[in-house]
């Protein structure tokens, strides 16, 4: 109720829809008290380009200004509404539309110039790249030779638009496209060629620009620059000679000069593009109708298809090479593989063999135990031992052992002959039908232990002087 009473105490002149639109727009703008100073000084730190656009849609009309002033004169003690107060503040600024449009042109000029200069530079660089690119020449040369062979007639060239149809033409046997065969031939005849697409980035960027619209933008910049001079004259009538006027005069003079240079650059780049079309082979009558973006799009899309097909062809060739290498050694023994090894593999194997031989020599010098065969008679039986070099000294006496060897043998014998501390519960056997058959565990266990001891002695090549003590049988 209090808010409604306060609203009734305010002067409301605008209709409800207009008032709401202004109040909503004010939320994205600086405070009204700072807007007037920012517009007069063209201070970009207070208000940006979006705020200028918003103000251009909220400009007060002459009728609204008159009604607000009349209502304020009738009730001078009653405050105005927020929307009415905002419009009255804007109305107090002289030549407000001219100031805002002049300020907007100043903020937009750099982006407008950049949007025109960069595509022109890309088109110029793209033409120079295509002229000097060896891969592009090789592709056109190979494609022309294929066309001459297939058609059976000698021609000097072909239309550049045919590049878009190369991926669509296929052979009748394997159904591979003409681009696939073209990649094979170019990679075979010119192994140092590239994928073309990664080298023509400028052409790809130029294919996305409408150069007709670019020419229209240059004309629009000239028009805006001339209109800005007229707006500056209107503002100068009210403000006189101020720093803002001096800066804007210098800015507009520089803009006019740069726009003239930009139009000259555009004309020269387009003339160079027309000469480039004649160099490519486009007929003279079709040169004026050929647009730069269409030409660049044909070349860029063909280059992208060429790169994709080229990578696929390289993968296929690599798979075939690997398959041939596997077939060389298929069904061969490992001793025959050396015949199919390359020089680098043979050299690596010989180096590895030398290292292994040198390591084995060093190990034998330092007392490494090489395994061998040795026959020794002990207790009237022949035993084969793999430790013959260790059991013999330099003089050939096979019974002399070092202290270290004794310790090793003792630990081995103890490990083998040691009985477990806890015997596992034996699995209960299924009894046979003959009840009178009994197994003698007291006789079987010593016999098994004797077999284990004999096996250990035969492997180690050493016979123990004293008999092994068997664990008591439970």
Automatic annotation (TrEMBL):
Q: Which domain of life is it from?
A: Eukaryota
The cross-references to SMART domains, in alphabetical order and at most eight, read: FH2
Q: Which GO terms describe its cellular component?
A: cytoplasm; cytoskeleton
Pfam family, any one: FH2
What does the record list as GO biological process?
cortical actin cytoskeleton organization
Region Disordered, residue ranges: 372-399
**Which protein is depicted?**
FH1/FH2 domain-containing protein 3-like
The record lists the organism as: Frankliniella occidentalis
């Amino acid at each position: 109720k209090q808010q409604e009473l306060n609203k009734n105490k305010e002067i409301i002149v605008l209709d409800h829809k207009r008032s709401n639109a202004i109040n909503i727009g004010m939320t994205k703008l600086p405070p009204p008290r700072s807007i007037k100073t920012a517009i007069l000084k063209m201070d970009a730190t207070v208000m940006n380009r979006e705020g200028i656009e918003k103000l251009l849609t909220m400009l007060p009309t002459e009728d609204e200004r008159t009604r607000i002033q009349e209502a304020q004169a009738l009730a001078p003690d009653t405050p105005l509404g927020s929307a009415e107060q905002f419009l009255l503040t804007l109305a107090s600024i002289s030549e407000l539309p001219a100031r805002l449009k002049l300020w907007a042109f100043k903020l937009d000029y750099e982006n407008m110039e950049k949007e025109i200069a960069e595509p022109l530079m890309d088109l110029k660089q793209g033409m120079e790249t295509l002229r000097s690119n060896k891969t592009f020449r090789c592709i056109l040369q190979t494609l022309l030779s294929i066309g001459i062979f297939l058609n059976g007639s000698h021609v000097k060239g072909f239309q550049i638009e045919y590049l878009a149809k190369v991926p669509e033409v296929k052979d009748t046997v394997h159904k591979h496209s003409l681009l696939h065969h073209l990649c094979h031939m170019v990679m075979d005849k010119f192994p140092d060629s590239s994928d073309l697409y990664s080298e023509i980035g400028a052409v790809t960027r130029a294919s996305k620009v409408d150069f007709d619209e670019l020419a229209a933008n240059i004309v629009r910049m000239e028009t805006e620059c001339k209109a800005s001079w007229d707006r500056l004259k209107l503002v100068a009538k009210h403000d006189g000679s101020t720093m803002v006027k001096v800066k804007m005069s210098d800015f507009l003079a520089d803009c006019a000069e740069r726009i003239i240079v930009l139009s000259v650059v555009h004309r020269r780049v387009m003339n160079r593009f027309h000469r480039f079309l004649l160099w490519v082979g486009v007929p003279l009558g079709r040169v004026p109708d050929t647009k730069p973006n269409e030409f660049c799009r044909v070349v860029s899309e063909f280059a992208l298809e060429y790169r994709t097909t080229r990578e696929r062809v390289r993968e296929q060739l690599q798979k075939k090479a690997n398959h041939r290498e596997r077939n060389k050694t298929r069904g061969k023994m490992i001793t025959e593989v050396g015949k199919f090894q390359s020089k680098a593999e043979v050299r690596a194997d010989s180096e590895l063999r030398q290292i292994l031989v040198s390591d084995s020599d060093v190990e034998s010098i330092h007392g490494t135990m090489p395994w061998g065969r040795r026959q020794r008679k002990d207790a009237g039986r022949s035993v084969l031992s793999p430790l013959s070099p260790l059991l013999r000294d330099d003089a050939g006496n096979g019974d002399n052992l070092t202290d270290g060897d004794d310790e090793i043998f003792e630990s081995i014998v103890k490990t083998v002959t040691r009985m477990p501390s806890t015997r596992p519960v034996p699995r209960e056997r299924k009894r046979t039908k003959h009840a009178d058959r009994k197994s003698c565990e007291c006789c079987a266990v010593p016999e098994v232990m004797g077999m284990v001891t004999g096996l250990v002695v035969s492997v180690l090549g050493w016979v123990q002087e004293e008999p092994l003590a068997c664990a008591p049988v439970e």
